[in-house]
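re the bet — no i am not wrong, look at it urself. input seq straight from the record:
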Amino acid sequence: MATHSIVLGNPVPKSPASSVHPRVGEQWLGYFAPKTKPMHLKLSSGHRARAALGADPKAVEIPRQWYNLIADLQVKPPPPLHPKTLKPVKPEDLAPLFPDELIKQEMSNDKFIDIPDEVLDVYRLWRPTPLIRAKRLEKLLDTPARIYYKYEGVSPAGSHKPNTAVPQVWYNAQQGIKNVVTETGAGQWGSSLAFACSLFGLGCEVWQVRASYDQKPYRRLMMQTWGAKVHPSPSSLTEAGRKILNMDPSSPGSLGIAISEAVEVAAMNADTKYCLGSVLNHVLLHQTVIGEECLKQMEAIGETPDVIIGCTGGGSNFAGLSFPFIREKLNGKINPIIRAVEPTACPSLTKGVYAYDYGDTAGMTPLMKMHTLGHDFIPDPIHAGGLRYHGMAPLISHVYELGFMEALSIPQTECFQGAIQFARSEGLIPAPEPTHAIAATIREALCCRETGESKVILTAMCGHGHFDLPAYEKYLQGNMVDLSFSEEKKQASLANIPHVPA
């Protein structure tokens, strides 16, 4: 009798002679056909990765190029501005912070950018990532909708963040940079950068939002295991941190504050550059491996999404999944609804203004036109630091203004209710960030139950929640509350954004 393995929720005959474990060889690597004997691929670091090579020529492969949505937009996004001259930023203005190749990518209008072989070698540790049909969740919700999720939690750091951490560190290493610095909120980005630095031999220093630093000791230990130095932010190590502590010694911190601290250190040290885990164009560019793989995976199973849903904080995960689909939408090949979901306590897209603002609290970064709550806005410490950035990626903000996507905000108790339903049906415990997308997916699926529509819903499951269990404990014990969004607090923060003449 033939054995079976689960691929996207469907049984697929598996050859008894195959030595590939079904979870590794098929579902978890995102392939769609029986596999031959796995081969070993040698990494540039000397490590060896197992990669099952499918006999089916249509088996999904890791993309060899990143996709740049800007190339396909008739209306280009507004450029970042120098904070003193208010003129468009030049490459030399960014040189103290980023290596040359990343600056080129940040400003590029090329449609596709080749992924270096050394980066692909590392990607092969976990890519391609699986596209999984949530049949058990569909059954629980009694919906005719077909729900798929692209799962990025199989990376070594447990989220989508290594997709950009690896190339960022590699480009810095190629330029001879010895150290990189960054900020992290929930800890996913800091973990990913520490992981990448451990592979390429760079020093790594992380400023972690104080609320997250205190609530997530294991994220901090994860970074330290990979060799990073981790500081709570605001810290007394930088002028930006000391200024905040003087005003509020018990400040819970924010991503804007942590960015200020990291940027300050990078600007003062010639052998040190700054890495950012979201928001900027080159970061969103690197994440498009998610959507490029997903397009091929859905094509292989004969499905086309009617609705695409992703969580948004700074926007990298959402952009990574949605931008390749937006390309196909612009080309008239598909016409899905594309929906961004954010927390009601930090709703930059749905409550912010579209204006030029600083990317950090201290005002050290270029001015970016984005949906913002004001660079002084310090959100309540929701979700142990997840999705707490005051602004939205400028390119996502631009796409939103062009009408190619929509946005909504959801309170945290509904998000965790959805996360519990997902965990108890699909088995995976989501990170707090994708709980927003899961909650919105459940809303859409229940609407389909009412209307009888069998829509195809695609959502981004950008990471697991193994280091976020204190947030689940708070929910399960009935201690989680929905934090209100203060319009007064927002207006006070917006009063301090710079005035840029139209």
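see?? The chain has a mean pLDDT of 87. told u. also The CA atoms of residues 153 and 363 lie 34 Å apart. so pay up
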